[in-house]
């Protein structure tokens, strides 16, 4: 006999959609980081995406990562510090794929759930996409301050689900 779930056993909407984002991330073949993103309007799921190479092109697990190093000046008080960043350029980020495969009209006023805090490039794209809220779980300290400032300036709600626990099936270690 099947019994109905009690309300206290039912997942809240943030957990439900973040669970979906994490399960979507399992499609990624990136050896450095699996990222999943979902687009939600109200409580309706409108699209999913994960990070990976363009369709029909060898991915990082087949052809290796295409790592580039970037230098960025970070000003702390009156002191300038050079920060070295490494990024894989073979992979299209989950947020970018989500924007490529969803319609602008669906994004207007919607929420994006993404497993990881968006990088600077993805944050810029999301800031111009029509979304009103971005919810993420894992931080991305390389771009965090700039991204938070951008979201504040654009009036986009930017929330971290820091007490969230991903589904066990979606687990992977993350390489910074």
UniProtKB/TrEMBL annotation:
CDD domains: deoxycytidylate_deaminase. The keyword Zinc applies. Its cofactor is Zn(2+). Belongs to the cytidine and deoxycytidylate deaminase family. Keywords: Hydrolase, Metal-binding, Zinc. Residues 12-158 form the CMP/dCMP-type deaminase domain. SUPFAM superfamilies: Cytidine deaminase-like. It comes from the Bacteria. This is CMP/dCMP-type deaminase domain-containing protein. It comes from Paenibacillus plantiphilus.
């Amino acid at each position: 006999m099947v019994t109905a779930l009690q309300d206290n056993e039912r997942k809240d909407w943030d957990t439900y959609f973040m669970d979906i984002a994490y399960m979507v991330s399992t499609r990624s073949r990136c050896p450095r980081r699996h990222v999943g993103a979902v687009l939600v309007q109200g409580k309706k799921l409108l699209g999913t995406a994960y990070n990976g190479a363009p369709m029909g092109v060898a991915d990082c697990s087949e052809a290796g990562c295409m790592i580039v190093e970037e230098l960025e000046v970070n000003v702390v008080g009156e002191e300038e510090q050079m920060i070295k960043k490494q990024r894989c350029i073979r992979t299209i980020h989950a947020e970018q794929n989500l924007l490529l495969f969803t319609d602008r009209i669906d994004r207007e006023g919607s929420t994006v759930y993404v497993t990881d805090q968006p990088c600077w490039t993805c944050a810029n794209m999301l800031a111009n996409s029509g979304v009103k809220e971005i919810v993420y779980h894992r931080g991305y300290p390389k771009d965090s301050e700039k991204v938070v400032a951008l979201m504040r300036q654009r009036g986009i709600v930017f929330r971290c689900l820091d007490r969230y626990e991903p589904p066990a099936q979606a687990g992977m270690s993350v390489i910074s």
